[in-house]
Amino acid sequence: MSEIVVGISDIKWSNNKDDVLVTYALGSCIAVVVYDPKACVGGLLHFMLPDSSLDIYKARENPGMFADTGIPLLFKACYGLGAEKKRMIVKVAGGASILDDTSFFRIGQKNMTAMRKIFWKNNVMVDAEDTGSNYNRTVRLDMNSGKVYVKTSGGENKVL
Amino acid sequence: MIDNILKSIDNIPAFPATVQKVSALLNTDDYSAVEVANVIKYDQAITANILRMSNSAYFGAHEKIYTIIDAVTFLGQQNLIRAVQTAGVSKFYRKAAKGYVAKASDLWEHSVAVALMSQILSKRVCCRENPVLYTAALMHDVGKVILGEFVHESFQKIMELVSDQGYSFLEAEEKIIGVDHGKLGGKIAAHWNFPKEIEDAIAYHHRPDLLKDSESDVPWLVYLSDESCLMMGLDGGVDGLAHRWVGEGLTRFNLRSKDLEQSFILLAEDLKRAKEMIAIV
């Protein structure tokens, strides 16, 4: 088994049953995990910010940084390995916030809203999610079983 | 328990004299590179770390730097202060803050990230870098190094307050252990005879609004840098994002959401180039 680490603003995808895709410490960032069980193709995106209009050059160089550039690329990369949209299971985790943050700067909330808009427009249903609250999460996709594991800081490893 | 904690402050090694000497020297107008190199060269650990950092992508050396005098000349005043501070304080983070993080380098990585973020924000709101702010940011979580052991013992109790009773992690530390990691860090800063501005910034890094008799921006910038890093997942441990948001932080500096988001991008860039700074712990 080889562990493939997905950094901040990064996307990794695979069709190798032996791989485990993992991303550490999500904070307000969000991990989008997709998996097609029939084709055994899966991918993991760790995006940091909602909207690429903030810096279009950065978005071109590093599409995984933003929801609106990262999510389409994640799906396309998996289609490239033979995944089909109708079979794809979609799970999301992250988007945590600081306690009682009601300011205009709620990046976790903004990330979730941006992500939901993109899914809504593209008819993507989220099969499971563990979002919000105020703790960090580590997310793993086991390519063999398609299972997604979420571990919270100081907490247990749970199947999502 | 609290007596044991306060007693253990006395066992913390002295703050490296080299760091203070170099900072003082660099704050005078007429220092020479030779003078600075002469202060640094007697401290082997700092010399080794400075050479390693000077050759890092973060400081952008194109040719290899072998001697401390070359490093001093190459780095220049601002970068030298930064390099000496980072190299000098790293030893305090070598002991894992068990209870907060799995390994010592996790807390160090967070500390360096907050220090780099503090300079990004300082440049944005004050148009300049700020060495006092850098020190405060680098040391803001030093209380965790001591408190970690006690948090480890009382973790269940703390988490019950946080999950079920709406306490922030800091408030729960205070309630269960008798002191929070900010205040304890402030006491360590006092033990090292740090300037009051730095001591306050460390003690109140999660609640700068409670610091009534200070006009300084430093505690607020440390606060904003720390919270930003927590949001980016560059966390300081099990407390995660369970800290109170103090809205004045943004309005005080007229920061828009976009400004902070752009700072996230700048920090992500800085961190890629700062691997050697992180690797010294």
The CATH first-level class of chain A comes to Alpha Beta
Tell me the radius of gyration of chain B. Answer: 18 Å
Element order of chain B: H for helix, E for strand: HHHHHHHHHHHHHHHH
How many discrete structural domains of chain B? 1
Radius of gyration of chain A from the CA trace?
Answer: 15 Å
CATH class of chain B: Mainly Alpha
Summarize model confidence as the mean pLDDT of chain B.
88
Q: How large is the share of residues in beta strands of chain A? A: 25-35%
Strand content of chain B: under 5%
What is the CATH architecture term of chain B?
A: Orthogonal Bundle
Structural class of chain B: mainly alpha
Structural class of chain A: alpha+beta
- The rough form of chain B would be described as globular
CATH architecture of chain A: 2-Layer Sandwich
Query: In this structure, how is the largest beta sheet of chain B organized?
Result: none
How do the SSEs of chain A run, as a string of H and E?
A: EEEEEHHEHEEEE
Q: What is the tally of beta strands of chain A? A: 10
Number of helices of chain B: 16
Task: Tell me how many strands of chain B there are.
Answer: 0
Mean pLDDT of chain A: 94
